[in-house]
Write a sequence for this structure.
């Protein structure tokens, strides 16, 4: 049986992600809500340099801990 996805405001999700990334010392300058498809509630992560992508991957592997 499929589960219903929770109704999460994309702006709240974006700010939560921005805050969590900042705690890990990571900034995604293009982080935003996709205004072109509001019904999908998409958060646009944008493009990042390779070093930022590597830092993000390392932070996720550590569970966000430095």
């Amino acid at each position: 049986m499929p589960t219903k996805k929770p109704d999460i405001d994309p702006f709240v999700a974006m700010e939560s992600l921005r805050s969590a990334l900042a705690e890990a010392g990571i900034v995604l300058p293009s982080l935003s809500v996709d205004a072109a498809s509001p019904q999908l509630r998409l958060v646009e992560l944008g493009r990042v340099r390779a070093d930022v992508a590597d830092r993000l991957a390392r932070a996720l592997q550590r569970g966000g801990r430095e």
